[in-house]
Amino acid sequence: MSALRPARVEQAPRAPRRNGGFTLLELLVVMVIIGLLAGLVAPRYFEQVGKSNVKIARAQIDSLSKALDQYRLDMGAYPTTEEGLQALMVKPQDATHWSGPYLQKAVPPDPWDRPYQYRSPGEHGDYDLYSLGKNGQGGGTGENVTISSW
After folding, report:
1. DSSP states of 76-138 as a string?
2. Cα angle 122-127-131, degrees, rounded to a multiple of 5
3. 15 exposed, middle or buried (CB, 10 Å; 0-12, 13-18, 19+)?
4. 23 within a domain of the structure (yes/no)
5. How far apart are CA 78 and CA 80, in angstroms?
6. Number of structural domains found in the chain
């Protein structure tokens, strides 16, 4: 007797298996979608940052104005242009009634890292305190606007 052989079963050809990764085309489509979303969101985000810098400058000018008013109450006059805002932190030479420092920390720069402009007597009042905005030129709109105490 011959050895029993199992019957041969013909198998249909298999389709090639696909790995679990992504094709280059799928990756490119996702990158384009992310780029479009970033293009829509980024301008609005940076616009908000600009608006917040203007608000920060207004708040700092308000705080400095209050310190200048306290200085005037003690000294009888606002610091001169030559003494500047530093008179809020460091006692001027001939200041007998100085009760400072009038700020808890050093005089801050404006949000664009430039010093605030101070003039006393001012053109718009007893003193002028202002920032020239992002471009440092003054005037303008948006972040380039002059932010002032008057």
Report:
1. SSPPPTTTGGGGGTS--TT-SS-----SSSPPPPPTTS-PPEEESS-SSSS-EEEE--TTSS-
2. 90
3. exposed
4. no
5. 6
6. 1
Which CATH number belongs to the domain containing residue 90 in this structure?
3.30.700.10
Whole-structure pTM value? 0.65
148 membership: H or E segment, kind and range: strand 147-148
- Type of residue at 7: A
Q: Are the beta carbons of 130 and 147 closer than 8 angstroms?
A: yes
Q: Which residue has the tokens 């608006």?
A: 51
Rg (CA), the chain: 34
Quickly tell me which residue has 């249909």 as its tokens.
Answer: 12
C-alpha 48/C-alpha 42 separation (Å) is: 10
Position 78 scores a pLDDT of 92
Using the structure block, give the residue that is written with the tokens 């203007």. Answer: 54
**Six token digits for residue 132:** 């020239």
Instruction: Judge whether 123 and 111 are in contact, CB under 8 Å.
Output: no
Going from the first residue of the chain to its last (150 residues), give the mean pLDDT of each consecutive group of 10, the final group possibly shorter: 65 66 88 89 75 88 93 90 90 82 89 91 89 80 80
Residue 33 lies in a domain: no
Quickly tell me which residue has 């708040």 as its tokens: 59
